[in-house]
Each structure stands twice: as C-alpha cells, then as structure tokens.
Inverse folding.
C-alpha cells in the first residue's frame, strides 16, 4: 500500500500546476490529510483496475482488495530488494526510526531512478567491471568529421541562416541546466544569480529570460515561449526564491517550469556496494543527462510538441553569449532537417573541450556524438587516418573536430519519439579512483563514486535514420562561460590558457555588443581600457551594454540603427541602451550615456552629442565586501552620466514616441 501511495503521488505530480510550475520529486508525503487522500485515491484506482478486469464493470468487489488473487504477484518489499541486490548491509545495526527512515529513502530512490535500484546496481556493476578491466568503450569505432556548417558572423551564409532561423525562434522551447552553486567561483549564491555586467545589475537568469521575451515580442507575441529550468538539491529553493523576488523577470507564471534533479546512490567498490552513514544512504549528483528524463517524466517535451513548437534549445547557466547567434543555429537546423544540432567552436588540439565526431563501428553502427577531450586523443591514435592523434589541421590551425560547448538544438518530433521509447535515460559512465590495497575480485575506491550521465550523449539513443550535425561559430559570438574564480583564472592566464572568469565573460559580452554595432555601421573602437586586474590581463572594449530589450542578435541590432545613421563612440565611453530605442540620425558619445525606453515608449534619437567625465574602470581592493567585484578584480566608477529615461508609456494605448533632437 505504501508503494502504491508513492506511485500515485509521483504520477500526479506533473499534472499539478501552481502559479509557478515547480516539480520537486524528492519530497515525501508528510501531511496526514494528504496521506489519507492519497491512500483513498490509491484504493479507488486499484479497485477500479480490478473491476475493469471483471465481467461486471458496474460493481466493485471489495473482498478483492483484502485478499488478492493467488495468481497475482505481490510487490517486493524494500528489505527483500536490498537483500537480493546484496545491499542488506544498509539495514544492519538499524532499528526503529533509523531503519524506517532508510527503508523510506531506499523506496524513494527505487521510485525515482529509471528502472529502479535494480537497474542502477546492475548497470554500475557492469560499468565498474569494464573500468577495472580497462575496456575501451570505443573499441571497433573509427572517427571521421561529421556533417555540419561553419559560419562566420560577417558572411552572407550567416545572414542567410539568421534570416531563415528568425521565425523558428517563435517555435522553440528553452531548457536551462542550472544545477551549480557559485562557491567555486568565489561567490556565495547560485551561479544564475551572478550579474554578467559590472555596469548593470541584471543577473544571468534575468538576462536569459529577457532574451527569450525579446524573441517572443519580435515574433508578435503569437505564443508564450516556454522555459524549463533543471535545478539540483543545492540550487532548487534558491532558484525559486530568485524568480519570486523578481516576479519571474517579466515572464508569465505558466511559462516557467522548475524541475529538480534527483541524486543517485554513492558506491564504495566494484561490487557497487551502496554507501551509507548513520542510517542515511549517501547520494551524489547523477549529471546533467537527467534533464532528458525530467523532460519526459514531466510531460513537457510532449506538451511543447502538442502546442506547436518545433525545437528545444538546451543551454548552460553562465554563458552570457548563449542567445546571440541562436537564430542562425536554428536556420542551420531547419535547412538541414537536423534532429540534433550541436553548437560548436573551433577547437585547439588537446584543449579541455570535447570534440564532435562521426563514429562508425565495424558492425555497422554509426553515431554522431561528443567524445570527451581525454578520450579523443587515444581514440584518434588508434586509427590509421589520425595516427598522430589530436593535432591541428595545417590549413586551419585547429582540430578538424569541432569543439562542443553543450548548447544543443533538438527537433521535437524525433526528441519526443525517442523519449517515449527510452524514457530519456542517457547512457551512463563511471569514473572511479581506486584505493591502494591487495589485489582481489572487489576493489575499493578512495572515495565513494556514482554513475553519471551527460545531456550531450542523447544522440546515442537515436535511431540510425536520425540526422545529427553541428553549427560551428566563432567563439567570440557564442561561448564565454564563467568557470573559474579569480585566483584560478590568473593561474590559467599565466599559462596562456583561457581564464574563463567573470572578467573575461564581461569583456566578451562587451565585445559582441561593440562588434554588432560596428556591423550596423557604427564607429566603435575595439579596445577601451587595458590592464591587469587580480592577475588577469584584459583588454576591455568601450563599456557598451545592449540589453535584450534593445537587441540580442545581429539582425536585431541592425534594425535599431537606421540606414545612413551616424554613430560614434570613443574608446573611453560607456553606452547603455535598453528598450525600444532607434538611432535615426547622429549619436556621438564621449563619456557616459544611458538611454532606457520603458514598455509602450519608443525613443528615436535624431541628433544627440554627449560629452562628460563618464565612467572609469578602477582596480578593486582585495578585501572588497562585494562578491561580484572581487570576482572581477575591478569595478566601474561612475563619475558623470547623461541619462535619458522614459518609462511613462501606456502599452495598452499604443506606442508613445519620444524624439531626441538636440
């Protein structure tokens, strides 16, 4: 009965809709009234299922609830299951409340894991056996360069793909994988609450949502574009609180679904012995591949398809450039009918970035999938075609295999069909660290490990007829994550490696803004302020901040600058543009200018010249109490600013046009 209650409660969860759809599969039934209702519902459903099997569907045989037919198989109890899986050590020495708590936790894990604990332990033992034996997962496979397209932003091909993909954005659902805390970055909070710009307080999550809403408005608000956010135990409540605090950053409540990823049992040795302490099973994250299972279990993928969407876009939590070239990527997907399209960048050989490969097996199997950087070199060396391994193509100076950045576009038709067939369970892997000890059949680990899965391995589940490819873009337009704290970033910079920190993420976002304005006809220098902050050398462009409400893509930016307009920004200048702002004349900035148009307002700049003291990039003290500032090593000091802010429009009454002509 307990298992039946849990099953009914679990299956009902996705259909429950609160003002903000929050799906948390780890919470047990604690309220007695809720428990009684669940029991009643369980009994009702159970009795209905029995009545449907009888010849008289109008009656319910209550005796059948008390005494099941002798041919019916009774559910296996959790203690019996643990014993059969050789995990009965978990219950030894436990009694009373501790024993009940562990059994409840095991039942919950058994319910949450696709295939249950039995499937998890079986997979773990096989993978650990292969790991101990040194089995090569790529044995029999030969790599070749897959089919895809390489686009340069200034090219006609890019403009063509961006135009083709523009309408497709209005048929796209968005999935943010946001399971990380900012502790490793030197930030006390979740990573999506970090601000991208020192000049603007908007955090990554706010910018992502504003970009989606900008795409929605550009399509005429014909439909609300949905956003799903996968969280973890560490980030779930903080993510929900961030959304609540900022009223979903302008999104309607039913546009956002927050779905929490569950953890899996930690393992002590090659027999997949589950770790526990004080009557509690030790659990660890399973990896971002669980996003596919959640998209299936919540019914979101199927719902999005039924709502007329064609694509789903997966993106990461601190890549501020994730949306800048999205229409062009969707154009490539549409032009090639790709079921999976990996956004890629040119990859330097031996770089800690996976490579997209077409793998062909001697038995006829074929996949186009990411191969992790530490596996790519030995795989290539094992072939006659690439005997030197992971080396540069002499013609380009880069690896012939494009670098995977884990921004993925899936076609919903094939995606939902594959989810229905597989439940979204992506192939798992294990990476144990073996402890020293005597040789034997069972090897212990230095610390508990677990099975993991990665979302980019989904193509391994696809049928042979599926079309999988890539879109390679210049790194500056699509990929600049915040991965390292300032000390680690400085150490990487000293080794001529990408620092990938808060300062470089801001620099690269400013660079895109400046370059898009240049491509729209503006005169903007490439370098504004140059220096080394906390050991990280940076060449910051002029502080040009284009908020999503002004422009996200190159096409959006060009639409904001009229033909024949003259725009000039000096190297020391700062320019912030937000909202419906159009430059149809002359704009000259030598200092700091902020222009904001609120909802229902359009600001048209006919003639405007600004000269003032502006803003200065200054070294921040090492003991700064502001995490955001410490992460960069610098701050922006606002000495003098010209502000033009109009937020008094009435969107319902139409657009109020404000002309600036000085």
């Amino acid at each position: 009965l307990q298992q039946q209650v849990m099953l009914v409660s679990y299956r009902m969860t996705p259909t429950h809709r609160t003002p903000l759809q929050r799906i948390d599969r780890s919470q047990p039934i604690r309220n007695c009234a809720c428990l009684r209702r669940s029991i009643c519902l369980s009994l009702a459903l159970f009795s209905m299922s029995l009545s449907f099997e009888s010849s008289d569907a109008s009656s319910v045989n209550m005796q059948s609830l008390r005494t099941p037919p002798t041919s019916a198989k009774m559910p296996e109890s959790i203690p019996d299951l643990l014993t059969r899986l050789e995990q009965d050590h978990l219950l030894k020495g436990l009694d009373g409340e501790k024993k009940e708590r562990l059994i409840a936790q095991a039942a919950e894990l058994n319910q949450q894991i696709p295939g249950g604990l039995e499937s998890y332990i079986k997979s773990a033992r096989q993978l650990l056996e292969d790991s101990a034996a040194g089995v090569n997962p790529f044995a029999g496979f030969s790599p070749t360069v897959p089919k895809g397209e390489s686009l340069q932003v200034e090219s006609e091909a890019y403009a063509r793909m961006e135009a083709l993909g523009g309408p497709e954005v209005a048929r796209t659902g968005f999935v943010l994988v946001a399971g990380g805390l900012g502790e490793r970055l030197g930030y006390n909070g979740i990573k999506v609450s970090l601000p991208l710009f020192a000049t603007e307080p908007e955090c990554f999550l706010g910018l992502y949502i504003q970009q989606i809403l900008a795409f929605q408005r550009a399509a005429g608000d014909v439909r609300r574009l949905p956003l799903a956010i996968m969280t973890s135990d560490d980030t779930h409540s903080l993510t929900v609180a961030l959304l609540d605090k900022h009223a979903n950053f302008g999104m309607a409540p039913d546009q956002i679904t927050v779905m929490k990823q569950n953890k899996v049992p930690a393992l002590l040795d090659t027999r997949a012995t589950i770790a526990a302490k004080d009557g509690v099973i030790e659990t660890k994250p399973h990896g971002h591949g669980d996003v596919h299972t959640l998209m299936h279990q919540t019914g979101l993928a199927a719902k999005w398809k039924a709502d007329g969407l064609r694509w789903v876009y997966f993106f990461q939590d601190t890549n501020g450039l994730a949306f800048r070239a999205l229409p062009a990527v969707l154009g490539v997907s549409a032009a090639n009918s790709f079921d999976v399209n990996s956004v890629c960048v040119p990859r330097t050989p031996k770089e800690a970035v996976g490579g997209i490969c077409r793998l062909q097996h001697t038995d006829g199997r074929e996949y186009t999938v990411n191969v992790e950087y530490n596996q790519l070199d030995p795989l290539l060396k094992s072939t006659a075609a690439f005997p030197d391994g992971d080396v540069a193509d002499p013609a380009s100076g880069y690896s012939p295999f494009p670098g995977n950045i884990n921004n993925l576009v899936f076609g919903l038709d094939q995606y939902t069909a594959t989810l229905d067939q597989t439940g979204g369970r992506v192939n798992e892997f294990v990476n144990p660290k073996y402890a020293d000890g005597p040789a034997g059949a069972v090897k212990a680990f230095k610390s508990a490990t677990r099975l993991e899965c990665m979302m980019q391995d989904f193509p391994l589940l696809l049928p042979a007829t599926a079309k999988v490819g890539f879109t390679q873009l210049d790194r500056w337009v699509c990929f600049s994550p915040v991965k390292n704290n300032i000390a680690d970033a400085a150490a990487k910079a000293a080794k001529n490696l990408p620092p990938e920190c808060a300062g470089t993420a801001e620099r690269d976002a400013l660079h895109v803004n400046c370059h898009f304005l240049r491509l729209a006809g503006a005169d903007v220098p490439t370098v504004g302020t140059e220096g080394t902050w906390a050991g990280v050398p940076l060449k910051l462009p002029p502080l040009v901040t284009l908020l999503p409400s002004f422009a996200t893509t190159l096409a959006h930016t060009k639409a904001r600058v009229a033909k024949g307009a003259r725009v000039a920004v000096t190297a020391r200048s700062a320019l912030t543009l937000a909202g419906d702002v159009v430059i149809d004349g002359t704009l000259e900035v030598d200092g700091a200018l902020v222009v904001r148009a609120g909802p229902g307002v359009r600001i048209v700049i006919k003639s405007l010249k600004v000269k003032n003291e502006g803003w200065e990039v200054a070294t921040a003290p090492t003991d700064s109490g502001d995490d955001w500032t410490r992460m960069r090593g610098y701050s922006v000091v606002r000495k003098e600013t010209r502000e033009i802010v109009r937020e008094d429009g009435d969107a319902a009454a139409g657009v109020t046009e404000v002309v600036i002509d000085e």
Summary: Confidence is low (pLDDT under 50) at residues 1-71.
